[in-house]
Design goal:
By secondary structure, the protein is mainly beta. The chain is built from no helices and 20 strands. A hairpin with a 3-residue loop joins β1 and β2. It is elongated and about 100 Å long.
Amino acid sequence: MSFKYFNVKHGLITGNITLDATNNSISSTNLTVYNSSNLGNISNVTITGGNSGYLLTTDGSGVLSWVAPNSNIANGTSNVSISTSGGNVTTSVGGNANVVIITSTGEIINGNLTVTNNLLANTVQLGSVGQPFCKIETYSATTVSTSANQVIWTGSSVASSVDFKIIATNSSDNTRTTTNITTNILGAALYWTEYGRLHINNGVGNFSVALTPSAPLVAELKITPNSANLIYYNILISSYTT
């Protein structure tokens, strides 16, 4: 093992260095490199300290330190935050807090939503958060028998009114029915009326609406088909609560 002071022109200054041929290592208490230095693969570099997952940062004056990963990304008065591991992703923009909140079940937008192309959704709720007034959804069903009062849709919650726009098609018999049904519901009472019914080749059958026989009392859409052939029902449903 040998010791030597080096001052190499155009790039390298060290204090005492140790050359150890037994493990092909060079060690020094100080090392300054003024021009570029190629250290090769990152596995060639070891910097002790920090914890697993920590990041190496600089204060801009050449002082390095280990810091824990930040759960925020910020630029000016806009930021994206994940406050807990696996938690909600919250976006604030221009000083307006919580403009968008992404949860494990969906997305909450506290502001206007502008869609410049198609908006594709199976269900849309209108009203304030936690107190929707109207839920609009699409639903599809089929029948293959003429059994009476077959249930083709059941509500998921108690409603004050439910409206249906129905397009029912029997391709085998070349028949179709389009119709509208509106309802008025209060407690155990349900009144309904059908309007705007149009048939092609006698249509597909007769519709009706009733409440489920046990609580919770929710609306059910029923059909008594006039054919055992396959009938498709495409339904637009608007449910209202008060």
